Amino acid sequence: MSVNVKIPTQLRAVTEGEAVAEVQGTTVAEVLEALYARFSELRPRIADEDGLRRFVNVYVGGEDIRFLDGLDTPVADGAEVTILPAVAGG
Amino acid sequence: MPPEALRCKECKTEYPLDARYVCERCFGPLEVKYASRSGADADELKRRIQAGPHSIWRYADFLPVEHPSSALAAGWTPLIRADRLAAELGIGELWVKNDAANPTHSFKDRVVAVALARALELGFKTIACASTGNLANAVAAHAAAAGLESYVFIPSDLEEQKVLATGIYGTNMVAVRGNYDDVNRLCTELSGEHEWAFVNINMRPYYAEGSKTLAFEIAEQLGFQLPDRVVAPIASGSLFTKLARGFEEWLEAGLLEGSLPTFNGAQAEGCAPVAHAFRDGQDFCRPVKPETIAKSLAIGNPADGPYALDLARRSGGAIDAVSDDEIRDGIRLLAQTTGIFTETAGGVTTAVLRKLAQRGDIGPQERVVAVITGEGLKTLECARGTFEAWEIDPNANSFEQARERQLTTA
């Protein structure tokens, strides 16, 4: 299962400048683990011991995973996963 | 007390004062850090304020810009003693801060003026925003006045009045098929790809500081005194938390004495992620899909929700939600007791004020300030069907007959 993950500018320093990363995974959790495996400095930036940090939003096909099944949300082949900071707006 | 840096509210990492809003280490929000104000000469500060212009720029010593000016002035709106509304609700002393009296008729002129001033200093030529309506209005107008290009992104189902009052300024208006949170997500993505100043995204630390001027004005208009309680609406939670920050900065600078007022937040039932987190004792907000007439407050994923919760709790306040019917009643109540016609957000604030009074939360000696953030002409639909005109022929007899009918049915 190949998935495209869009990386926000704030994280590209730890993804060797890559704006989109193609990884394997069938759930959001697996996709993130695959990302952490490729970019070792990524995990502490967006995750803590309880899961994702509270100012990190993750979307699958444009929908916030908190409206889906959170980290267990299934990800279809070719799906687009987006990581974004949660501090904009208002 | 110049600004020194941008600092992460979570992990305290510091960054230079440029166009950034997220901590690269922990993804926390950045805010402006100033040099310490303790030991400041309060009398001198007060003199400088009182000698300043009748706009937000009289508070330049507390704002993160080097050149405090804007083509379109903002702020210095009336603080009105609302004795009739106070009597109606059984409140001892009530004031209404009428921020509809801004150039584009909402408090957003304050935040946009600050963000735009800083954007010009940083060399931006284009400004943009994700908006529930009022912000788009302000960005389009301030950009026009300053001669900048602008892009405003709004949900496509916005009130017609807000759309028309924004488009007239000649902005690039982008109506997104989705709700505000969709618009916000899109703009957060776009902000990484375009060299634009998105006022509430990459300029957010500066933008948010503009809301402090509401607190400064309230305190100054009360004669450099604090209210006991503030009732204000919550959408993202930015205004709510920055009101407190404004009071705290003046306490630290010695311009005010006493302690932080009690903070009451107001949300619409149809979009109440912060009120529900407050009720449930949680320190984070579960996002919701908004469904309310209060579109200017329809942010289902509030960025400053955790900080708004913290403020309500540490100040001894609360965050309450009211139904759409209560919002319409609130608009009418404010109009009929103060002469101020507010939009739905002000209806939310007034309805929550009434709820607090009915619940007995407000002490008889308290001085209360209700923050009215926008203008009723922007959400006219809410007034429709709430009254009837007497249609008559143009003669005195017809009028007297109509009046007779009215008196017998009343």
Can you summarize this structure?
Chain A has 90 residues and is an alpha+beta fold.
* Total number of domains of chain B: 2
Major protein interface:
A-B, 27 and 40 residues
Q: How many beta-strand segments of chain A? A: 7
CATH homologous superfamily classification of chain A: Beta-grasp domain
Biggest sheet strand order of chain B reads 4-5-13-10-11-12
CATH fold node name of chain A: Ubiquitin-like (UB roll)
Morphology call of chain A: globular
Oligomer state of the chains in this structure: heterodimer
Beta-strand share of residues of chain A: 25-35%
Main sheet properties of chain B: 6 strands, mixed
Q: Count the helices of chain A. How many? A: 2
Radius of gyration of chain B: 21 Å
Mean pLDDT level of chain A:
94
- What's the CATH architecture of chain A? Roll
What descriptive keywords fit this protein?
heterodimer, A: 90 residues, alpha+beta, Ubiquitin-like (UB roll), two-stranded antiparallel ribbon, 2 helices, 7 strands, globular, B: 410 residues, alpha/beta, Rossmann fold, 2 domains, four-stranded parallel β-sheet, 14 helices, 38% helix
Describe the structure.
The complex is a heterodimer of chains A (90) and B (410). Chain A is α+β, with helices and mostly antiparallel strands and 90 residues long. Chain A has helices at 28-38, 42-46, and strands at residues 2-6, 20-24, 47-48, 51-52, 56-60, 63-64, 80-85. Chain A has one domain: Beta-grasp domain (Ubiquitin-like (UB roll)), CATH 3.10.20.30. Chain A is built from two helices and seven strands; from the N terminus they run ββααβββββ. The relative contact order of chain A is 0.25. The mean pLDDT of chain A is 94. By secondary structure, chain B is α/β, with parallel strands linked by helices. Chain B has two domains: 79-105 and 211-383, 3-Layer(aba) Sandwich (Rossmann fold); 108-210, 3-Layer(aba) Sandwich (Rossmann fold). Helices cover 38% and strands 16% of the residues of chain B. Chain B has 14 helices and 13 strands. In chain B, the strands form three sheets. Chain B has a six-stranded mixed β-sheet, sandwiched between helices. In chain B, strand 6, helix 4 and strand 7 (149-155) form a beta-alpha-beta unit. Chain B is globular. The A-B interface holds A 6, 8-11, 13, 44-46, 53-57, 59, 62, 64, 66-67, 82, 84-90 and B 10, 21-22, 24-30, 130, 180-182, 184-185, 187-189, 191-192, 198, 200-201, 204, 235-239, 284, 286-287, 289, 299, 301-304, 306.
